[in-house]
Specification:
Blueprint: E1 7-9, E2 15-17, E3 26-31, H1 40-51, E4 57-62, H2 74-85, H3 104-113, E5 125-128, E6 134-138, H4 147-158
Amino acid sequence: MPVTDFEFKSIEGSSMPLSRFAGHPMLIVNVASQCGFTPQYAELQQLHEKYGGEGLIVLGVPSNDFGAQEPDTEASIQSFCQTRYGVSFPMTQKQAVIGANAHPVYRWIAAQLGEDQAPRWNFHKYLVGRDGELRDAWPSRVAPMSAQVTQAVEEALRT
């Protein structure tokens, strides 16, 4: 089953079927506004601006699972991201990303890659290819604009 078979609710509350992104590589990232890695929003926005025109979808998934670092409402999260980091890439409503209550996309990721590849903290990144299948994953400490991520994104855009 490809990731495009799943659906989120957008941060604004509307339906966000991932099928609308079919044929596009996606970088799915669990995010939080009160984390030491929160400045990565700036690099996620850079990725969106640099590669979005070529088809990359950056998808932010707010989560309060780690250190209760995303306690706010969707409206507050959206305002913070837009005001502080100029975020214009799609964001979902707040989701659980680990455990039995994890969003189905994150349960799918764990089933595909193994439980040891489930997010360990905020800003864990997963790259999905045009075919809807997982291609790569990076922990929080790997910056979105690092060579590791950008080279994998460029490869995903070529294939």
